[in-house]
Design a protein that fits this description.
Strand 2 and strand 3 form a beta hairpin. It is built from 5 helices and 9 strands. The strands form 2 sheets. The protein has a 5-stranded mixed β-barrel with strand order 1-2-3-5-4. A 4-stranded mixed β-sheet has the order 8-7-6-9. With about 200 residues, the chain is of the alpha+beta class. The two termini are about 25 Å apart.
Length: about 200
C-alpha cells in the first residue's frame, strides 16, 4: 500500500513541522490499533492509531463520524481519513469528519496515474505489457508520463486513457516501472457548500 499512501498524504507522519498540520486534511494510514467506548449520551466513539511507514498518527471519531464511517474501518488495512489535524503531545492527530476504505477511495478519489520513465531502463516491451495487462474500464482517466534519460527530460500526457485506477493496476504498474515511479492522480477537490467537505469526483 506504499504507493497508495504516498499518493494521498500531504506529509509523512514523522514530519511534525509540516505547514499542513493544523489544517483540514486528507490522510491515509494502516490501522494498527483501535479502541471504542460510549460517550455521555451512550453513543459509540472510537480512537485509532494509523501508520504510514514513518510514524504513527492518532485519529478520533466522535459519535456522528463513527456512526457514518465505522464500516470502513478494518484492522491492518488502509483507511483514508478526512478531518482537522493538529499536533498532540507525541503524534499528529486528526479529528475525523469522514473516512474511506481502500476500495471506496479508489472509486472516489483518483482519476489517473503519474508514471516516471527512464528510457535507458524501460523497453518498448514494457510499454506493451502495460497496455496488454492493465484492467480497462469505461471512464476516461489521465496518465502522465514523465520521460527522461541522461540527455533530456520531457513530459508526455495521455488524457483519454481507459485504464482503471485500482489496487490491481497499481501493483502491475509497480512491477513494470518500480514503486518509486508510480503515483495516483488525485481528483480535483472542490470545496462544497454548507460546511460539508468532500473529495469525491464531481462534487
Amino acid at each position: 500500500y506504499e504507493v497508495f499512501i504516498k499518493s494521498v498524504n500531504p506529509f509523512t507522519f514523522d514530519n511534525v513541522e509540516s505547514p499542513e498540520i493544523g489544517k483540514y486534511v486528507r490522510i491515509v494510514g494502516l490501522v494498527s490499533e483501535m479502541r471504542t467506548r460510549l460517550d455521555k449520551n451512550n453513543n459509540s466513539i472510537a480512537f485509532l492509531t494509523i501508520e504510514d511507514f514513518t510514524e504513527k498518527a492518532k485519529v478520533i471519531f466522535w459519535s456522528d463520524a463513527y456512526s457514518k464511517c465505522s464500516k470502513a474501518i478494518k484492522m491492518d488495512e488502509p483507511l483514508v481519513v478526512v478531518g482537522k489535524s493538529s499536533y498532540g503531545s507525541e503524534f499528529i492527530e486528526v479529528v475525523a469528519d469522514d473516512a474511506y476504505s481502500l476500495d471506496t477511495a479508489y472509486k472516489k478519489m483518483f482519476d489517473g496515474y503519474k508514471i516516471w520513465i527512464n528510457i535507458d531502463e524501460i523497453t518498448e516491451s514494457d510499454i506493451d505489457t502495460m497496455n496488454e495487462t492493465l484492467d480497462k474500464g469505461q471512464a476516461e482517466n489521465k496518465i502522465y508520463f514523465y520521460v527522461k534519460n541522461t540527455h533530456f527530460k520531457r513530459n508526455y500526457v495521455a488524457f483519454k486513457s481507459n485504464i482503471l485506477v485500482s489496487q490491481s493496476n497499481t501493483n502491475k504498474l509497480c512491477e513494470i516501472f518500480g514503486k518509486n515511479n508510480v503515483r495516483m492522480i488525485l481528483a480535483d477537490y472542490q470545496k462544497p457548500k454548507e460546511n460539508k467537505r468532500s473529495w469525491d469526483k464531481g462534487k
